[in-house]
Amino acid sequence: MRRLSLLKQPLLSVVNDHLIDYPTPSNLSYWWGFGSLAGICLIVQILTGIFLAMHYTPHVDLAFVSVEHIMRDVNGGWFLRYMHANGASMFFIVVYLHLFRGLYFGSYASPRELVWIVGVVILLLMILTAFIGYVLPWGQMSFWGATVITSLASAIPVVGMDITYWLWGGFSVDNATLNRFFSLHYLLPFIIAGASIVHIAALHQYGSNNPLGCLAVVDKVSFYPYFFLKDLVGWVIFALFFSFFIYFAPNALGHPDNYIPANPMSTPAHIVPEWYFLPVYAILRSIPNKLAGVAAIGLVFVSLLLLPFINTSSIRSSNFRPLHKKLFWLFVADCLLLGWIGCQPVEDPYVLIGQLASVYFFAYFLIFIPFLGKFEKALLHYVPRD
Predict the structure, then answer these.
(1) Residue 25's beta-bridge partner residues?
(2) Does 1 have pLDDT greater than 60?
(3) Of 39, 84, 156, 233, which residue is 20 to 30 A from 46 by alpha carbon distance?
(4) Which of 102-116, 238-252, 298-312, 371-385 shows the lowest mean pLDDT across its residues?
(5) Are residues 218 and 98 in the same domain?
(6) Are 42 and 114 contained in the same domain?
(7) Is residue 324 annotated as part of the catalytic site, yes or no?
(8) Which residues are annotated as a binding site?
(9) Where in the sequence is the domain holding 351, given as residue range(s)?
(10) Which of 142, 150, 155, 152 lies closest to 169 in space, CA to CA?
(11) Side-chain half-sphere of 45: how many Cα atoms within 13 Å?
(12) Which of 66, 274, 317, 334 is catalytic?
């Protein structure tokens, strides 16, 4: 009879093994709930995006008007639009917290290198998807943001301008650019969904990390109902937080200039990307040379990808690494500082502060992480002389 049970049938047995009977370390805290929240955010973005695409027109003369049509004339259109626009911010909040939790508890360490690498790839795809999605309303910030960011490709030697023209589909940001971005914005979330499945499969190969950072081979319980109910608490709190922005502050996380139709003849006084791009944008602005700035952006993600391989500590959790714990919280403060610098004018003292914050950002990954593990091992084996 057990063989004939519903959850033992093909496909459903995979769901059962990975989401219901999946053996989970019994000491996981609420910080481990952001993975499932990220999955919910992705589903919300895909569903609302599909319904919005039914009414959106990817043409430079009609895109802005079609968004206003969705807001004013489509039944429930305002709700779909605000849920999708604010959902992007919610998605990044959840993923950034998920990332910081992984950094704090050493979830990138062996044997979970592939889990971390796929996670960084998902973050890259999210950033790309969010950027091209921000262009679609075709407001002032949409147009000029697309112009500034795509122009960065022109800094690449020899082939830079060819890549830029290819991205534009012409010699400037125009209708061809908007059509390309709309097509990619529709496609990329499904690629993210596929990468998320790979991420989960890689995680379940060796099992989840835990707050102690030790191998939990014996002390495990099934995911359902124990951690399902624990995650459910986080889902309810998140739903209330998300709902506040949808109903009471739908434009708080956006820029008012994007309610002005795109005008190639009028440059905004201060071009600012969405808040979740601000730390990387601050690093870009902190470097006077355009090519070096683009290289620094690439180095941000290279540093994240290399983290499992340059880590030298045999202890995962920062709860047992007092020096790393202090450096980690300084890193969190540094990222917040970079986010603030990213929305300030390009002038002193903001440029200098951004440069100092950028130095610490890279020092954390490329200096502190590799050498701190060796220093900790030296302390562990240190024998004082009599």
Answers:
(1) 220
(2) no
(3) 233
(4) 371-385
(5) yes
(6) yes
(7) no
(8) 84, 98, 185, 199, 204
(9) 273-386
(10) 150
(11) 26
(12) 274
Whether the CB-CB separation of 87 and 254 falls below 8 Å is answered with: no
Q: Looking at the structure, tell me whether residues 316 and 225 fall in a common domain.
A: no
Among residues 89, 231, 286, 358, the one annotated as catalytic is: 231
- Active-site residue (options: 89, 107, 196, 208): 208
Please check the confidence at residue 16 and state whether its pLDDT lies above 90: no
Active site residue 220: no
CATH number at residue 156: 1.20.810.10
| Whole-number Å distance between alpha carbons of 289 and 105 | 36
Annotated binding site for heme b: 84, 98, 185, 199
Burial label for 199, CB within 10 Å (0-12, 13-18, 19+), is: buried
Same domain, 260 and 280: no
Token pair recorded at residue 256: 């008012």
Q: Are both 153 and 282 inside the same structural domain?
A: no
The three-state secondary structure class of 265 is: coil
Binding-site positions for a ubiquinone read 204
With a threshold of 0.90, does the pTM exceed it? yes
262 within 8 A of 279, measured Cβ to Cβ: no
Active-site residue, selected from the candidate residues 59, 204, 220, 290? 204
230 is catalytic: yes
Q: How crowded is residue 157: how many other Cβ atoms within 10 Å of its Cβ?
A: 6
Name which of 4-8, 140-144, 188-192, 226-230 the model is least confident about: 4-8
Of 55, 230, 290, 377, the active-site residue reads 230
Instruction: Reply yes or no on whether 290 is catalytic.
Output: no
Q: Which helix (H) or strand (E) holds 359?
A: helix 350-363
Q: Which residues of 283-321 are buried (b: 16+ CB within 10 A; e: fewer)?
A: bbbbbeeeeebbebeebbeebbbbbbeebebebbbbeeb
From first CA to last CA, the distance across the chain in angstroms is 71
Indicate the number of domains in the chain: 2
**Centroid of chain to Cα 205:** 23
Tokens of 207: 């099992």
Number of Cα atoms under 13 Å in the Cβ half of residue 362: 16
DSSP 8-state class, residue 109:
S
* Whether 143 and 31 share a structural domain: yes
